[in-house]
Design brief:
This protein is α/β, with parallel strands linked by helices. It is built from 11 helices and 9 strands. It has one domain. 47% of the residues lie in helices and 18% in strands. It has a 7-stranded mixed sheet. A two-stranded antiparallel ribbon has the order 6-7. Helix 3 packs across helix 5 and helix 10 packs across helix 11. The chain is globular, with a radius of gyration of 19 Å.
């Protein structure tokens, strides 16, 4: 239960007020992005590291315990992690202002094959990299893209996000405490549409599965994986990672349960979740600083 509460307590909403957000969007019409990054690195990041102490400590544990870094390297990577996250937040506002980024896709054929098929399919996201850019990259040409989003984001940010993403046939579905969003997602899959759900965040239902993840057990939500198996739809994992100031690298990976080894639905769902966890591990091997779950993901394993 403590793990569920920890997952639900951290939403990752964008800081600042509506005026600040509008000003930031307008400024990207003429300001150099690298200059904005520099100001953030000097002023904003130290502020957040000092006053957002809980997120700072959880990231230190991630680098120290899960990645096995030394003390000083862990501190350095905590700063890099906050800096990279700040870049990604700024990039989202830059996209609202019309800025373009180069996005190279590894495995795009898997997405296009499912897009051209008659069956609906699921896309699992995670809090690594900048998944939101997937909405600008992968075009929902023939099937509507239904993306589950957590509540708590600033209203003006949600309005701008809705405006931009709706151009690509994407519908944002807010997660609700009464779990009614599950019916929306189920109906979308039954209609042959695409459903996108975070696969690393426990919300609402306490059901979870423990997966081997970065050398320890971590809890992943069971619901998304059970839904994929109930509807018997193909499942993809998509990661969009920041590679340089103006370039992102996207990865599309098919995940499947081992039906020969596992026959029960929950066992197959657990195996599907483990496959997803392995895909996250592989991406984090290349981009260790782009893990953005700013709480104790392994909160029952906080050895120093």
């Amino acid at each position: 239960m403590a793990e569920q509460l920890e997952h639900e307590a951290w939403r990752g909403n964008t800081g600042g007020n509506a005026w600040m957000h509008r000003t930031l969007i307008k400024s990207f019409g003429f300001m150099n992005l690298r200059f904005v990054y520099l100001g953030m690195a000097i002023f904003a990041i130290p502020f957040y590291m000092i006053f957002a102490h809980k997120g700072y400590i959880s990231m230190y544990h991630y680098f120290r315990q899960r990645r096995g870094y030394g003390v000083w390297k862990s501190f350095r990577y905590v700063y890099l992690n906050h800096y990279r996250f700040g870049q990604i937040v700024l990039d989202r506002f830059a996209m609202f202002a019309g800025r373009k980024f180069q996005i190279d896709v590894d495995g795009n054929d898997q997405f296009e094959d499912l897009m051209d098929g008659e069956q609906g399919f699921m896309v699992l996201s995670s809090h690594v990299g900048n998944y939101e850019l997937a909405g600008y990259t992968f075009k929902a040409r023939k099937k509507r893209f239904n993306a589950l989003v957590f509540s708590g984001e600033a209203q003006d940010v949600m309005e701008e996000r809705n405006k931009q993403l709706s151009k690509n046939n994407i519908r944002l579905v807010p997660a609700s405490s009464d779990m009614s969003h599950i019916f929306v997602m189920n109906d979308a899959l039954a209609s042959g549409e695409i459903v996108s759900i975070p696969g690393d965040r426990i919300f609402g239902s306490p059901r979870y599965v423990e997966c081997d993840f970065l050398g320890s057990k971590a809890r992943f939500p069971l619901g998304p994986f059970v839904l994929a198996l109930q509807r018997n739809v193909p499942t993809l994992a998509i990661f969009v990672m920041k590679a340089s100031p103006y370039r992102y690298q996207a990865y599309v990976r098919r995940i499947q349960a081992d039906d020969r080894k596992y026959t029960g639905r929950n066992d197959r769902a657990a195996n599907l979740a483990q496959h997803f966890a392995r895909e996250i591990e592989q991406v984090l091997e290349k981009y260790p600083e782009q893990w953005f779950n700013f709480y104790e993901f392994w909160n029952y394993d906080t050895e120093q």
